[in-house]
Design brief:
Elements lengths: L2 E6 L4 H9 L4 E7 L3 H10 L4 E3 L3 H5 L5 E4 L3 H14 L2 E4 L7 H13 L5 E3 L7 H11 L1
Parallel strand pairs: 1-2, 1-4, 2-3, 4-5, 5-6
Length: 139
C-alpha cells in the first residue's frame, strides 16, 4: 500500500516530512501551515506539493491516507477527531491531547472506528535517557 500523506505544522512536522518522503512507498501531497511567512517559504521549497493554511483540504482529500499532526498542542484533539471522522490514519506529536476527558473521547471514537490507526511518539517520555536528562534539568 502506498502512503499518501498530509502534514499539519512544519516545525517538527519537517522531520515527519523527511521521514515520509524518505520511504519509497510514501509521499507527502499536502502541507498545512498557519504561519504566513512559512507558507511563502514552503511554496518555494516544495513547488510540487499543495501548500495551504486550510487543514480541511487534507481531511477532504480522498487520496490522503495518513495525516501527520505536528501542530500546536491545543489543536491536536480537534485534528484527531477530524482524522477519525474522515477515516484517516494519523501520527500525532505529543501530547496527544491536553486532559483525560479528551483522551476518553479519542479512545471511544477509535473503538467505534476500528479501521483508523493511530501512532504517537509518547514512548520518549518513558525513555531512560530522557528521564536522566529531565532529572538533571530539575536539579
Amino acid at each position: 500500500m502506498k502512503i499518501n500523506a498530509g502534514i499539519i505544522g512544519m516545525g517538527i512536522g519537517q522531520k515527519h516530512f523527511d521521514a515520509i518522503e524518505g520511504y519509497k512507498k510514501s509521499q507527502v501531497s499536502i502541507i498545512c501551515e498557519k504561519n504566513k511567512n512559512k507558507l511563502i517559504s514552503l511554496r518555494r521549497k516544495y513547488p510540487s506539493k499543495v501548500i495551504t493554511n486550510d487543514e480541511n483540504k487534507i481531511f477532504k482529500n480522498k487520496n490522503i491516507n495518513l495525516v501527520s499532526i505536528a501542530s500546536y498542542d491545543n489543536y491536536h484533539f480537534p485534528q484527531i477527531l477530524k482524522c477519525i471522522k474522515a477515516k484517516k490514519n494519523f501520527v500525532v506529536e505529543k501530547p496527544m491531547c491536553l486532559n483525560e476527558k479528551e483522551l476518553t473521547i479519542i479512545k471511544k471514537k477509535l473503538k467505534n472506528n476500528k479501521t483508523v490507526k493511530m501512532s504517537s511518539n509518547l514512548v520518549l517520555r518513558t525513555n531512560d535517557l530522557f528521564n536522566k536528562i529531565k532529572k538533571k534539568i530539575n536539579k
